[in-house]
Design goal:
The complex is a heterodimer of chains A (about 375) and B (about 350). Chain A is mainly α and about 375 residues long. Chain A has a single domain, classed as Orthogonal Bundle (ABC transporter involved in vitamin B12 uptake, BtuC), CATH 1.10.3470. Chain A is built from 16 helices and two strands. Chain A is globular, with a radius of gyration of 21 Å. Chain B has one domain (about 15-340): Orthogonal Bundle (ABC transporter involved in vitamin B12 uptake, BtuC), CATH 1.10.3470. In chain B, strands 1-2 form a two-stranded antiparallel ribbon. In chain B, helix 7 (about 155-160) crosses helix 11. Chains A and B meet through helix 7, helix 10, helix 11, helix 13 and helix 15 of A and helix 6, helix 13, helix 15, helix 16 and helix 17 of B.
């Protein structure tokens, strides 16, 4: 359906460079990836209206710190989703890292660094396995990551006997719950907030690199990317590695918050996917911005905070989350469709380029090759 | 290379492979069980295996329809829980209430499926998200209104879960009956053929004059109704409805795994019910073997995860090789399982 329109967008000037900065910003905010920032702003105003204390800089920064793990996980999941795949193993990776930290670090501070290296190595290994099984064995990523999810969580539960074990030394848990003390105005800057900021900048930079741009392209049309000489298997494998590493970081932060328990991280994959989708990233790949995914996580958390303040029973939380994601995606589907003549208005302008210059975005069997 | 590709189609179909794997698993089971000093083919053990197939079977048949139509249904465990609760509460231990309870439970399930289908077909929301959202909505409802198990099934209803005809449990027969009906729907009716067409390529189906929405809606409705039947069967087995019974079984992901294990392409448009039944049977036999070996419950998950990935890897390689090279669809299909499903959402 978008085939015909894709050809008409070829013009003398690129639409994305039309208009001033304000005009481009306005157009960007009308795409699902931009609208999520408006949603965050609106929700923030609502939460502050419901509870004025929340608006104080100190509590805002603490909120950012609390949301950091899920935002980081969402950014990791973004890499996989934008390349056209799923990562359902994320929750199990979080659980695995939490349990690893609990069992191996213990009360010995000198072990923090080696064990963290081990955690990152194992996280990367899970990503490599996911990526290679998806790309080289040609198993749908949904099934691969479902398999790793079952295998990892089964293994962790087997090794721990399903109960909480060990408790890492406090200085390690400080990564999750500590912060820089005695800062003027803010009082305390939580370490998770700083980690989130650094990772967000890194992800932003990465998505502007050739890797990021090709990754978006591979989600949109893997055949075109393959024909233009990119190693799609290595691109997607790197996306899976990033996702698992993000889950590892989220796990390290969660140890500080939640302590060690095999149930930490359960359902994290679906929360992360929800956040990514609320951030306007299209399942199936090729569209969306990494910072929108992080903003999607904030929108979700703000919504839960709002429900909390308004006094809705916590059992309804799931229902609201369900309604929100359906509505968000329904509106998103409409907006992407309605805006397809100005598709360049979406925030990832450079990454969007390969899509505009030709091939059919929706159907992989390219009619041109028959 | 080319000659090889031309030779391949004469070989086994993917359903053939599924049943070959099933036979292998059965042989393996017989050997392992014999090593443990028991008879694998005793009527008690066969009955146990068949009982193990029935609940996942119901859900996997529905899931096959949805996946064939190019969608997904993650809300099935919650539908099953809700159906078991509604059935149990409506029956309240009275035999006279059984028809009303069954109609209520399946009616509500059908309604949920209808909403799923309408959201997927008309609002262009990816089935993954629509059903994930619906699952969360139901989870919230169940968590708020039911603190624990509720209702009770009368003895007559419990018989459905307990009765055996020879070594074959009645529940398995009902499940196989449903499978036959669904196979007839897919092979003999117009909407069944349209279902394959829409799942294969929504755009091509539309351009060929097929209305793309009705098959998707029908698939979702049937899937939810079958999940509701699974819930009623769980009620018959446990005699109480439970708000967590569906999620405990992990039926959403396990049914998808069984469908894909049965050779159905996750992106839609290719596959059949027979394969799915084979996939479900493989799981049931595997569970039985691991039970005989007294494997740790958590390690069983590890084995399941590995088997799912490895088995699907075998089909995926094969499917990729089987396609005629001229169209070069293999490469697209290999690399983009998800985008094809997302065709509807974009």
């Amino acid at each position: 359906m978008t085939t015909a329109d894709a050809t008409t967008t070829r013009g003398t000037t690129l639409p994305m460079s039309e208009g001033g900065t304000a005009g481009r910003l306005g157009r960007a905010l009308r795409t699902p990836g931009g609208a999520v920032f408006v949603l965050v702003a609106v929700l923030l105003v609502c939460v502050i209206a419901a509870n004025p204390n929340f608006g104080e800089p100190g509590s805002l920064v603490r909120f950012i710190g609390r949301t950091a793990p899920i935002a980081i996980a969402a950014m990791g999941q973004y890499f996989v989703i934008v390349s056209g795949e799923f990562d359902l193993s994320m929750g199990s990776v979080v659980t695995m890292q939490v349990v690893l930290a609990g069992n191996f670090i213990g009360q010995d501070e000198s072990r923090i660094l080696p064990v963290m290296l081990l955690m990152f190595a194992l996280g990367a290994l899970v990503g490599v396995v996911n990526g290679l099984a998806t790309t080289l064995l040609k198993v749908p990523s949904f099934i691969v990551t479902l398999g790793t999810m079952l295998a990892l969580s089964g293994l962790v539960l087997y090794l721990t006997g399903g109960a909480a074990t060990g408790n890492p030394v406090d200085s390690f848990r400080q990564i999750g719950r500590g912060g820089i003390q005695d800062v003027p105005i803010l009082d305390v800057i939580p370490y998770p907030a700083i980690i989130l900021l650094v990772l967000a900048i890194a992800a932003f930079w990465l998505m502007r690199r050739p890797f990021g741009r090709t990754l978006v392209a591979v989600g949109d049309n893997p055949q075109a990317v393959h024909l233009s000489g990119s190693a799609t298997w290595w691109l997607k494998t790197r996306a899976f590695i990033l996702s698992s590493l993000a889950a590892t970081v989220a796990g390290i932060i969660l140890v500080g918050y939640a302590g060690v328990h095999p149930s930490v991280g359960q359902g994290y994959e679906f929360t992360a996917i929800t956040a990514v989708v609320v951030g306007g990233v299209v399942l199936g790949g090729g569209r969306g911005w990494v910072l929108s995914a992080a903003a999607g996580a904030f929108a979700l958390e703000l919504l839960f905070t709002l429900l909390n303040f308004v006094g809705v029973a916590s059992t309804w939380r799931d229902t609201v989350q369900g309604v929100i994601i359906i509505v968000a995606v329904a509106i998103g589907a409409r907006a992407w469709q309605g805006g397809r003549r100005r598709r360049s208005a979406e925030p990832i302008t450079p990454g969007a380029e390969p899509r505009q210059t030709g091939t059919t975005p929706t159907t992989p069997p390219d009619p041109g090759t028959t | 290379m080319n000659a090889l590709a031309r030779l391949r189609p004469t070989r086994l179909t993917s359903t053939g492979i599924v049943y070959l794997v099933l036979v292998l698993v059965l042989v393996l089971g017989a050997v392992i069980t014999a090593a443990a000093g028991r008879n694998f083919f005793s009527s008690g053990n066969i009955s146990a295996i068949l009982t193990g197939t029935s609940i996942l079977g119901f859900i996997a048949i529905g899931q096959t329809l949805v996946i064939l139509a190019g969608s997904l249904d993650l809300s099935v465990p919650y539908v099953a829980s809700l159906a078991s609760l509604l059935g149990g509460v409506t029956m309240a231990g009275q035999t006279g209430n059984i028809p009303l309870a069954v109609v209520t439970a399946l009616g509500v399930a059908a309604l949920i499926g209808l909403v799923n289908g309408l959201v997927v077909a008309y609002l262009h929301v990816h089935g993954f998200i629509a059903s994930l959202g619906m699952g969360l909505i139901l989870a919230g409802y169940l968590g708020t209104n039911y603190k624990g198990s509720a209702g009770s099934a009368p003895r007559d209803f419990r018989l459905i879960g307990a009765l055996n005809i020879g070594p074959v449990p009645l529940s398995t027969l009902i499940m196989l009956g449903c499978a036959v009906l669904v196979i007839l729907l897919l092979r003999r009716t117009r909407i069944g053929h349209h279902l394959y067409a829409v799942g294969g390529s929504k755009d091509v189906a539309r351009l060929s004059g097929v209305r793309t929405q009705p098959p998707i809606v029908l698939a979702h409705v049937l899937c939810s109704v079958l999940a509701g039947m699974a819930g009623l069967l769980l009620l018959a087995r446990l005699s109480v409805g439970s708000p967590t019974i569906g999620t405990q079984g992990g039926y959403d992901l396990m049914s998808i795994a069984a469908v894909v294990l049965g050779g159905t392409v996750l992106a839609g448009g290719k596959g059949n019910i027979l394969g799915t039944l084979g996939g479900v049977a493989i799981f049931a036999v595997m569970d039985n073997i691991m039970g005989v070996m007294q494997l740790n419950a958590f390690l069983q998950d590890v084995v399941r995860g590995l088997v799912i990935v490895l088995a699907v890897a075998v089909y995926a390689r094969r499917n990729a090789d089987l396609r005629p090279a001229r169209f070069d669809r293999s490469r697209a299909a290999r690399h983009t399982p998800a985008p094809t499903t997302a065709g509807g959402a974009a």
